[in-house]
Amino acid sequence: ALMVLGERRITPFVITLGVVGALLATPEGRWYARGPRVRVVNATGSGDSFLGGLVNALDGGSDWPEALRDAVAAGTANVLSTGGGQFTLQEFNTMREKIQIRAW
Description:
single chain, 104 residues, alpha+beta, 4 helices, 4 strands, 40% helix, globular
């Protein structure tokens, strides 16, 4: 499967891996993002928060790796809240600083 991911004609896609992080592959490159280990309060809405972080970053002009960072930060900040999408901008920014991104 990794050989197929390395072809130049791929459509951008992302795979969320829960507590393990997320993978992003685009024609420009492939990246792995991992957030800090946190105590999950409630995972409801984390996928939606992840997607919202990704789309918002891309819409704001971020490149793919930074958009992935924002996506993982939003998903991670979300699991710390008691309800889906209830995290603050400060919580998001704190998580964003802790996201590790590397090419794969």
